[in-house]
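Feature request disguised as a bug report, sorry. It would help if multi-protein outputs had a clear separator. Right now it looks like this:
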Amino acid sequence: MILKPFINGQYVDSAAETFTPVYNPSTGEEIAKSPCCTRGEVAQAVAAAKAAYPAWRDTPIKKRVELMFNLHRLIGENLEELVLTLATENGKVWSEAEGDVLKAKEMVDLACSAQSLLMGESLMDTSTGYDTTLYREPMGVFAGIAPWNFPAMIPMGWMAPLAIVCGNAFILKPAPTTPMTSLKMAQLYKEAGFPDGVLNVVPCEPDAAELLLTHPDVRGITFVGSTKVGLHVYATAAAHGKRVQALCQAKNHALILEDAPITRTAAGIINSSFGCAGERCMALPVIVAQESIADKLVAELVRLCNQRKVGPAYDKTSDLGPVGSAKHKAFVSGWIQKGIDEGATAVLDGRGITVPGYENGYYLGHTILDHVTPEMTVGQQEIFGPVLCVKRVKSFEEGLAVMNANPYANGSVIFTQNGHYAREFAKRTDGGMVGVNVGIPVPVGCFPFSGHKQSFFGDLHCHGKDAFRFYTKSKNVTVRWFDEEEKKNTTVTSWDGSL
């Protein structure tokens, strides 16, 4: 199957000379070819968005929200097909793929609240007889560069609906290895009644995508991906006068204090560390355990891992699916070996696992590397796979210091029953999203996704009120009216033409 970009409300044939194969990670089979759209096709998408913008900007907010309600309904009606598409191209197990789509739907929910979230502010008599009102206005064309690991939630949740409901037109560059979900959802925008050109989806390689960072008609960029690329996107787009949100890598840590209940804590860690095969920026790839309970905790983690079924994404009984690609499987496997070479103890080693009937799939089993020390790179850099590192510390203070030494700060977690330590942790951790006995502290859509340090570059975060500020500009209007009394006391004479 040859996929087509979605430009100006239509799926169009691409003039691309090269195509990226899209594989089913569960089987290793090629299921589609994604066009590497040309710079000319990216420019065509920008032109379509620019042409659609004036009429969409002037569309009343009530109408824009009505169309978002239509989209919300259509996602629900097409949920099964969207989940199957996502699970097939990405490898998430069914429940996780469904969660990915439902998180996109949650952000459309937020977009449906735009009438109140886009309200400005006003103040009478800012000076005698002067009133000032702040309005929030759309800006034009925005673009999003999406990663492969969340094909629905990120491009069609964090990005497109919020930019569009604000009155902007949008261009999405999906990941070339997982474009099918976004392309399917583009059709739902069409069915919901959004005008042609308001949403455009163009799969392309970095060279063509670079045009989005420099094109004068693109006002801002939302990027999700690696820190190396994120820094390039941030520097390049900002140098061309654009707004930028760059959400980047992570290495989230959890501090496990000795008073934490072992069974419940271990269950929370398993879900956080191995859900989505560890391929999420809010995964929990490192735990920092107090030495007094570390052995007992690791034993419980091993026991729970051994109960989980590794299998294909669309088997609803699978607990752990494949990783995203053959290349990524090799990458993660290399990190496991590097951790062992650095001195970590492989309590569980998921390499070499085989799923009967799916021998060509990209499977890695649960992996736990114990006794990871601060100098080991395996405990510092993002692996993005089903690998859990265990660091051991003597105290709360030592654990907090180990966590804050990491260059990334998307999220951080503490498991404890001690309110004092929980409060101190929330105040002093570098993590932008903090969990207290919550393994994945991703906030609901009305709060921002607030990473820090090398995990985020920009001023305004994704979703929540930050997103509505990012996708709009503020305009202050100050008004003064002359009163009737002043008019009565003003004598107006006509000019007789003399100089």
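(second protein starts here, but nothing in the output says so)
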Amino acid sequence: MTAQAIRIIGLDPGLRHAGWGILDSVGNNLVHVADGVVRPSPDLPMAERLHVIYRELTRVIAEFSPDEAAIEETFVSKDARATLKLGQARGVAMLVPAARGIPVAEYAPNQIKKSVVGTGHAAKQQIHHMVRVLLPKSRAASADAADALAVAICHAHHRASLLRLTG
């Protein structure tokens, strides 16, 4: 019996660069499908920047039809205003798949690093290197796209245990 592919979109939201990465998880195998970055103009008002993220992620989801989505939990910085703005972008990124009935899982940054590299305190370069190792056909469009692929990889590794907990 052949395992059915589960298509996962990983999301790395941001107001300047919102990364996305899609992979197929087939049993223990991961296959890169696509990745990219949404780049709203920093000159646009906040509402329009959020709309660009919404519109572009809607297009990506319509094009690639993921079964599941995953996103990094908010990193709270000392700058409350920046954290709030990031939260708005994150809310939009979560809304797009949720509005289409696609379940959205959330992962802490350390959990993503541990799933991809093996340690929760890995440097960005280590994460991006392991994304290339785990998805050899991936040539991530940017660091944000590589981060989004790392979120998708983390979800692929943890989705079975999530299903047992919720199912």
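Even a blank line would do. Unrelated, but nice: The helical segments are 46-64, 80-99, 109-116, 124-134, 143-166.
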